[in-house]
Structure formats: C-alpha cells, structure tokens
Amino acid sequence: MDKKVVIELQNVRRNFQVGSETVHALRGVSFKIYEGEFVTIMGTSGSGKSTLLNQLGCLDTPTSGEYLLDGTPVRSMRRSQRARLRNRKIGFVFQNYNLLAKTTAVENVELPLMYNKDYSTRQRREAAIAALQAVGLGDRLEHKSNQMSGGQMQRVAIARALVNNPAVILADEATGNLDTRTSYEVLVLFQKLHAEGRTIIFVTHNPEIAQYSSRNIVLRDGKIREDVYNQNILSAADALAALPAPQDD
Amino acid sequence: MKAILSNKARSILSMLGIIIGVAAVIVMMAIGQGSKESVRKELSTWGTNLLTIRPGADMRGGVRQDPSSMQTLKMADYQSILSEAKFVTKVSPEVSASGQVINGANNTNTSCYGESPDYLSIKQWTIEEGTCFTEEDVKKSAKVCVVGKTVVDELFPGGQDPIGKTIRFKSIPFRIVGVLKSKGYNSWGMDQDNLIIAPYTTVMKRIAAQTFFSSIVCSAVTEELSDEAIEDLTAILRRNHKLKDDADDDFTIRSQQEMMETMSSTMDTITIILVVAAGFSLLVAGIGIMNIMLVSVTERTKEIGLRMSVGARGLDISNQFLIESILISLTGGVLGVLFGGLLTWGCNAIVGYPAVIPAWSVIVSFAVCVLIGVVFGYFPAQKAARMDPIEAIRYE
Ligand SMILES: Nc1ncnc2c1ncn2[C@@H]1O[C@H](COP(=O)(O)OP(=O)(O)OP(=O)(O)O)[C@@H](O)[C@H]1O
Ligand SMILES: [Mg+2]
After folding, report:
1. What is the pLDDT of residue B188?
2. Contact A33/A50 with Cβ under 8 angstroms?
3. Ion ligand 2, residue ranges at CB < 5 A
4. How far apart are CA B200 and CA B112, in angstroms?
5. How far is CA B93 from CA A114, B49, B88, in A?
6. Cβ–Cβ contact B384 with A under 8 A
7. Under an 8 A CB cutoff, do A80 and B313 touch?
8. Which phi and psi angles does A89 have, rounded to 5°?
9. B61: pLDDT confidence band, cut at 50, 70 and 90?
10. Distance from CA of A237 to the nearest CA of B (A)
11. Distances (CA, A) of B44 to A96, A229, B37, B87, B272
C-alpha cells in the first residue's frame, strides 16, 4: 500500500494518577492509520477508547511513546500548535456531545470557525448552516441546545466536527444515543465522508457498525487485542432502505 | 459579551464599584477645576495688571524672617514710586487693622484698610453711593471712610442712609462718605463686603500707630508691561533701601499673574489629593472585578475546555476574558462618568457650587477603566488560558 500514513502511534502509554494509585489507561498502543481509512474502535467500557481518541485528537499527550500526525510528533508541539491542528485538521465528536448551553445550533456549529481567521462572519454562518443541513437539521438552526433531543444534539455535535472540513474525523460513540434509523442515517453520512476521502475513526460499542467500516481495532485493558481489515464493507444506505418505514404517530 | 448579558445582576454589581469610583473621581476633578476657574475669575476682577509689593524677602522658600524685615516699606518708598515709577499708573499704600465697629447700639467685627483714593480703581471696585475720600482727606488724616455693604447692613439695620453718619472703629469716629458696591463672597467663603476703607494716613496714625506699610499695591500700565514695572519698582526700592548689589531684596513684588499661578497650583495639589483618594475606590473596584472574573472562569470551565478542543488557543481564551473584564470596567466607567456628570450638575444647580468637568478627566477615566480591566482581568484570563482542555471539558 503506497497510501500516506496520517496517524502513527508508537508504543503510546497514558497513565493517570488517582490519589496514590496509577491507572494505566493505555499500555503501549502502536498502529498506523492511512489516509482515507474508516476505522472503528471497539472494546469494553473502560478499555481506553476515549483516552486513545483524546490522544488522536491532540487533546491529550502520551505519558510515553510517540504520536505522529502527518509525520509530525505531537508530544513536542507547543500548545498553540496543537490548538491549530484541532482547529484545522481534526473534527471531534464527543461521547457526550459537549454543546454550549443556552446557545443555538448554528452558533454551536460556528464555534470552530471562530478561531479560524480565514472565515468571515458570513462565511462562518453559511458553513455552519451547510453542515447542519448535511446532518438533517436544516430546520433546527435557531434551536438552543437545551431545546433539542439527545439525537438532535448528537447531530449538532457531528455538524460541528464537520464544519471546518477536517481531514480526520474522530467520533466517540457518535451513534450511542440514536435510534436504529438515525444511527443508520449517521452511518450513511460517515460513509459519504469516507467516500470523499476523509480519514474516519469511529469509537463504538456496537459490533454491527464495524461491518460498515474498512478496519476494526479492538481494545482491551489499554492494549490492542485485534486489528482486522474488513474486506466486505456493507452499505449503510442499503441497510437504511431495508429498514421498515417510520411509523407516523 | 453574552456572558455579561446573561449575568446582568452580577455584572452590574461588580460594575458598581467602578461606577462609584469613576463618579467620585469625576466629581472631585470637576470641583477642583471649578474652584480653580472661579478663583481665577475672581482674581482677574481685581485687575490683571495689579502689582502687590510686600515687605520681606520672597517667602515662597519658607525661610523664617526677622520681624524687622517686615517693616521695610515706608512713606519714602511710596513717594518715590509715585514720582519715579515708569510703568505704573496708580499706587496705594496699605495698612490694615481689624476690630469692632460701632454705631450706637449696633456693632460688628470688621477690617479697616488704610488706602489712598487710587485704591478703588486699582482693585476695580466701584462706589455705589456717595464718593470716595480725597487726596485732601489723606493729607489731613481726615476721619472719613468708605464702607462695604455688610458693615452698612450690620450697623444700620433700620435701612437709614449711612452717608454722612459717623461710626466708631476702635473708638475712633469716622464719617461715612461712600458705600461700596456689593461683591458678595469669594470662593473661600470670605465676605468681601465686610470692610471699611479709610485714608492710610488716618489708619497709620490713629489706629495702627505704625510708620510702615503692610503692603503697597499699584497698577501696571498694562498686563503685558507687568514685568517691566516689577523691574523698575525693584530698582527704585533697592536704591531707597540702600541695598548692596549682593544683598537680597527686602521686599517682594508679585504680579496678579503670579498670584493666579500660586493659587492654581495650590488648588491643583488639593485636587490631586482628592482624586487620589477617589482613585483608591477604583482599586477596590478592580479587585471586585477580578473576583467576579475568577468566578466566571470557574463557572465556565466546561465552555473553556470545549472552545479549546475545537481549536481555541490559550491566547484566544485569555483575550475573551480580558475583553470581558475590560467591557465590564469600561461600561462601569461610562456609567460612572454619566453619574459623575449628574452629580456635578446637581452640584451646580442645587448647591450652587461652580463645578466644571474638564474634558481630559473623562478621557483619563476611560483610559483608567481600560487599564483596570486589563490589570485585574489578567490573572483570571491567564487562569482560563492555562486550563487543560480534557480536564476542563470534564469539569462539572
Ligand atoms: N482523567 C482521568 N483520570 C483518571 N483516570 C482516568 C481519566 N480518564 C480515564 N481514566 C481511566 O482510564 C480508563 C479508560 O477510560 P476511557 O474513558 O478511555 O474508557 P472508554 O473505553 O472510553 O470507556 P467507555 O466505553 O465507557 O466510554 C478508565 O479506567 C478510566 O477510569
Ligand atoms: Mg469513552
């Protein structure tokens, strides 16, 4: 494979000090992710998935080991450089959405672009509206985050991750709070982004979702237990079409 | 910005300190400026070409003087000035005494000034009723006088015509020949109408019993020629006093200009002290802002974490909080200036004190508010900027 390596982890460890105890959340994780891959990461609760994703999202730095993003070591970067990477290169969907309270959907989605001087106020708003339309929330633009359902908030969080047009999209349980139909809609969206050539890393509990990705990594106790390529990627659009039509109530 | 609006009550409370502090500073400056202007106005009504000669060396150094040096201005000096001084139009020697003045059963305390008839025109005072005494009266040490309104009111409560009546000052009878036009109170609250003016010869001989003058006042030809007049007068007096070339003057000549400058510098000092006192309340207000900003930073930890996770740098976060604290203190400053303006207006309209807000004090207030915002917002802003995104976003 002569594809470009986007993400490379070299024996990454992450320890947390809780009182006098040391929690080993990641115990030496190494892998390479190439441009355009759609990777699902699975594992039991507490296996270190979120910790790993925080590393990949440049939100956290390893206790030891090295993380190279596009060949550049992240650990030795300055804080502001990491902030810039998060802003331009990475779209991050949090496990619990993390929307700004009392703030409208559009404003939430605009947030990453506020820290990008290339966008004017108008462009920012246009991009935010486009991203919200892409996740099917074109009719909820001015709804405040506390006026939306869990699934809608989840989709606002996804729109926020897409708005800066990132090369790498990291999603932590992006379908965790959605019903089957909406989950598939989100999957369709991610497959579309994948088809556009973006690198996607998708943390999930649901083994079914792995069938729609190109590669599946399973974590246990902070180590990689399984790393397999999926030769038979299913189409989420087909699965969605096969679902029974939504009932009106 | 949003945070300020969504926490209106809290923001206004923390602004309150700034509002009061700025208002206090504004009012203090306005009062200072107002008094300065009214003193200036008052001094200029005395004639801007007024020159005052006092005995003794220049006192501004604060050096203690030999009492005999206070007796250096003599009749001969007055005569020389009258006959020789080139840039001086009118001259009056001055002797004063204070004491009780009596008319029958009525009495009051007042000051009696011995002057020449030129005095009124030097000071630009006018006679309302009657006339001034004459050179003739001076020569004869006549017991005549001109009185101020207050003296008239005190001694003639029935409203009789005082002209021609005789009053007693320190048991010396004086016949009233004129009444001065009222001048009211000056800015130090001194009644300018409580006085008696009599020929200097009369006061010297019969009341003060002295052969020297307490001062000599004269008018320079014009205000511009004041300096030349001072030089000329100095030469005359030094010659009269037989001072050696290396000896200091044993008298001091001040122009009205200098008097004004001395006055305004005194006023400035008082104003500065008041403003500094008011400024301390701004310091306290700044600490209040810092407190509120720290609370705000802690409350919004999650938001800070989120902003950082989508790419805000520490600098962006610290700017956000700095702008917020500047906005709070500047808004407080604007309200404070308005409030101070209102108080100043009240000062003028209700109390009648002539307070004037100098334009620069408004500008300085705004600048100080921005400074307070930066200084007291800096620490909270840094605290926010140094947060770790992951820890911050987990904060509940
Ligand atoms: N900030 C932290 N301080 C202390 N321990 C932590 C911290 N973050 C994570 N851990 C620990 O690291 C381990 C892995 O946590 P992580 O959140 O990565 O799990 P996860 O795989 O995402 O679980 P879930 O599926 O429930 O989200 C856990 O044992 C957790 O207690
Ligand atoms: Mg997790």
Report:
1. 66
2. no
3. A 50, 95
4. 10
5. 80, 16, 14
6. no
7. yes
8. -110, -25
9. low
10. 30
11. 77, 98, 10, 19, 24
**Residue with CA nearest ligand 1 atom 2:** A16
Helices (H) and strands (E) in chain B — how many of each? 13, 10
Q: Who's near B197: CB < 8 A, 6+ residues apart?
A: B112, B113, B114, B115, B119, B120, B145, B146, B147, B180
Alpha carbon distance B124, B337 (integer Å) = 40
* Strand ranges, E, within chain B: 50-55, 88-103, 106-115, 127-130, 144-147, 166-169, 172-180, 195-199, 215-220, 251-255
Whether B135 shows a pLDDT value over 70: the answer reads yes
Q: Are the C-beta atoms of residues B118 and B209 closer than 8 Å to each other?
A: no
pLDDT greater at residue B9 or residue A85:
A85
Structure tokens belonging to residue A225:
């237990």
A208-241 residue pLDDT tens: 899 999 999 999 999 999 999 999 989 888 888 8
| C-beta of residue B369 within 8 angstroms of C-beta of residue B18 | yes
* pLDDT of res. A248: 54
Percent of chain B at pLDDT > 70 equals: 94
Cβ of B53: how many Cβ atoms within 10 Å?
25
What pTM value is reported for the model? 0.72
User: Is B109:B98 a contact under the CB 8 Å cutoff?
Assistant: yes
- Residue B191 per-residue DSSP state: B
**For chain B, how far is it from start to end, CA to CA, in angstroms?**
23
Residue B8's pLDDT is 75
Q: How many CB atoms lie within 10 A of CB A110?
A: 21
Residues present in chain A in total: 249
Task: Please give, one letter per residue, the 3-state secondary structure of A51-107.
Answer: HHHHHHCCCCCCCEEEEEECCEECCCCCHHHHHHHHHHCEEEECCCCCCCCCCEHHH
Residues A33, A4 contacting (CB under 8 angstroms) = no
Q: How many CB atoms are closer than 10 A to CB B198?
A: 29
Instruction: Provide CB contacts within 8 A for B5, sequence distance 6+.
Output: B11
A212 within 8 A of A185, measured Cβ to Cβ: no
pLDDT at B63: 55
From the CA of A26, the nearest ligand is 1
Positive or negative, the CA dihedral B187, B192, B194, B195 is positive
Question: According to the per-residue pLDDT averaged within each range, which of A244-248, B47-51, B170-174 is highest?
Answer: B170-174
Interval B354-396: pLDDT, tens:
778 888 888 988 999 999 999 999 999 999 999 999 999 888 7
Gyration radius from chain B CA atoms: 32
Cα–Cα distance for residue pair B185/A143, rounded to 1 Å: 69
Nearest to B310 among A54, A86, A102 (CB): A86
Q: What are phi and psi of B48, to 5 degrees?
A: -80, -10
- What is the distance of C-alpha B254 from the center of its chain? 18
**Which residue is closest in CA terms to ligand 1's atom 3?**
A16
β-strands A21-34, B106-115 pairing: unpaired
Contact B17, B281 (CB under 8 A): yes
Contacts of B220 (CB under 8 A, 6+ apart): B49, B50, B51, B87, B88, B89, B226, B228, B229, B255
Residues 6+ apart with CB under 8 A from B92: B115, B116, B117, B118, B119, B122, B200, B216, B217, B218
The full set of domain ranges for chain B reads: 2-42+262-394, 89-219
